[in-house]
Amino acid sequence: MTSLSSAVALPSSCRARPVGCSRRARLLVARAAASSPKLPDGRRLRVAVVGGGPAGGAAAEALAKGGVETVLIERKMDNCKPCGGAIPLCMVSEFDLPLDLVDRKVRKMKMISPSNVAVDIGRTLAPHEYIGMVRREVLDDYLRTRAKSAGAEVVNGLFLRYEAPKEKNGPYVVHYNHYDSSNGKVGGEKRSFEVDAIVGADGANSRVAKEMGAGDYEYAIAFQERVKIPDEKMLYYEERAEMYVGDDVSPDFYGWVFPKCDHVAVGTGTVTHKADIKKFQAATRLRAKDKIEGGKIIRVEAHPIPEHPRPKRVSGRVTLVGDAAGYVTKCSGEGIYFAAKSGRMCAEAIVAGSASGTRMVEESDLRKYLAEFDRLYWPTYKVLDVLQKVFYRSNAAREAFVEMCADDYVQKMTFDSYLYKRVVPGNPLDDIKLAVNTIGSLVRATALRREMEKVTL
Amino acid sequence: MAMATSTFSPRPASRAGPLKPLQAGASKPHLHISFPRLRAGRLARAAAGEAPVEVVEAPPKEAEPSPAASNGAAVKAETPAKAVEAAPRLTKFRDERWVNGTWDLRQFEKGGVVDWDAVIDAEARRRKWLEDYPEATNTDEAVVFDTSVIPWWAWMKRFHLPEAEKLNGRAAMVGFFMAYFVDSLTGVGLVDQMGNFFCKTLLFVAVAGVLLIRKNEDLDSLKKIIDETTFYDKQWQATWQDDSPPAAPKK
């Protein structure tokens, strides 16, 4: 799928803006960094990173490494953020994650169509390739600790609001609730401090985004139940994750069974029919019934997943990264890698724009990070959007989707683009074959759909 | 293209029966166009599929606001240590020709040759059954049927040819009438019409129209497709829209 679209030229309108802006922004930065004022008294640039998840942790670490004085504010240090928890291989290598962070290595995936056609995906994976399943509390804590060792100050507190600067290169004043268990004060004390820039990494319900008027996005609700199943059933999920597609399971997303450290997470999600999420969850449990029978539900959780970026991702010297910005892909709902990567890229842009913390940054420096991120990942997002639009729109399309996934070429392309976030140009002949097969599958599934309408059971 | 546009046609009235009592619960009644955002028809059917197997859980409504209000939280479970219950089940899909998760083609033979139409019918019926009464997957009886096993000419004969006949017929009728109409207005005969650029354009428009617009709803569907393909792009570029003129280098 991905290489097919790279062979077909994307309409120029969707590329022109970010690339043009990035060139313009880069020129701006070159000029601005040289001419933006050196910070008074030789003090370093101060940046507040609000939110200590993958985005915040990665941003704080890169900022601290770059010589910027960084404060990372996180409201709950032991937060077990409900999450699918899947990270691609490139995240392990790019962020130097220790392998003991990965609870499970998923090497087999099963895609199950509405009529229970089951396709095994993962035949094409090399022995060293896998999808890593992590516990968010473990990953987040690790990244925060690394940020701390790099020189960032990690503060336990809840961000309340910020005040915009009163003059042109003036400071932002960040107000937050400081939690300190040692002095026994319940509820925390209000504190504030001054910074030169703010990075909003506080997730889907970002307060920073609200403060800066970033606008809203549509979001999906992901609902999942952690189920502890008997050991012999757990063996089936040893290295295997399952994805269920169908109108019964979700009208615009998919249901899943993902293995966690010692239990499985059974869940589903939806954008358009949030009120029926419980019905969809029941349907997911029904589809996996035999495999999770006898299991005990140990936790029920839900979380929002952004569907697209917020209308405004930067305002003055305040910018958003991760879920706060809305960097979750469609079709698969992947967000952890893009959160961490966007946090790091934003930090690197700030470090570069401030000449390693010696000069003031400007909005144009932050726009440089946006341009670079959009340029790097726009193809990925667009392809996944097209996949979702084409293959999640009806049961017929989903049947075709699962049929397509049985093909080795599709599997190889899919995993390459997921694990390494690169679109590898495939053999053009294979691409044409793939296109023909895709159309064939869709046509057959749609034809069957029309027959189905005539059937009365 | 032929198949793609026909997915947007409204469902026939035959599916009315079991869905009536559930339409009160559907969030958006009476929208038949199957776009992702307008899926009441599917939803009602999903609910219909669920109704026979739904267990005692009354969905607690207080769970709804909390996930959206936070970045995800543990929703209060009704009974935290509740075992995953076995839902009361309708009969599973059964067909003597459905063996080991696929259709046994030998049982479809008619006069020594496989009757592909019967295979298509059987698969349609199976999918309809499973859509209305979803079943648990079973690793022992994994479904491995692939529709590509049915040869391409069987699909052509069954689906493409009647549609092609219909469309060609329409095109011919439109063509004949337009040729007559133009001739009566301008006196230009058919042969001379074909040599004229404007007439050729009209011909192209007529053919495209017959192909793309088969039902009244198709016009709206086409407009929606065009919007949809560019919507995501617009959402991503929103942050660049309010781009004020680049800040001049300061000081």
From TrEMBL, chain A:
Pfam families per UniProt: FAD_binding_3 (PF01494)
A GO CC term assigned to this protein in UniProt: chloroplast thylakoid membrane
Pathway stated in the Swiss-Prot or TrEMBL entry: Cofactor biosynthesis; tocopherol biosynthesis; Porphyrin-containing compound metabolism; chlorophyll biosynthesis
UniProt GO MF annotations: FAD binding; geranylgeranyl diphosphate reductase activity; geranylgeranyl reductase activity
Residues of the FAD-binding domain: 45-78
A biological process term (GO) from this entry: photosynthesis
Keyword Oxidoreductase carried by entry: yes
Family affiliation: Belongs to the geranylgeranyl reductase family. ChlP subfamily.
Function description: Catalyzes the reduction of geranylgeranyl diphosphate to phytyl diphosphate, providing phytol for both tocopherol and chlorophyll synthesis.
Entry-linked PANTHER family: GERANYLGERANYL DIPHOSPHATE REDUCTASE, GERANYLGERANYL DIPHOSPHATE REDUCTASE, CHLOROPLASTIC
Protein name (database record): Geranylgeranyl diphosphate reductase, chloroplastic
TrEMBL record, chain B:
SUPFAM superfamilies found in the cross-reference section: Chlorophyll a-b binding protein (SSF103511)
Region (Disordered): 1-27, 52-80
Membrane topology according to the record: Multi-pass membrane protein
Coiled coil: none
Keyword Cytoplasm: no
Keyword set, alphabetical order: Membrane, Transmembrane, Transmembrane helix
Superkingdom: Eukaryota
Compartments (UniProt record): Membrane
GO cellular component, one term: membrane
Name of this chain's protein: Lil3 protein
Provenance organism: Eleusine coracana subsp. coracana
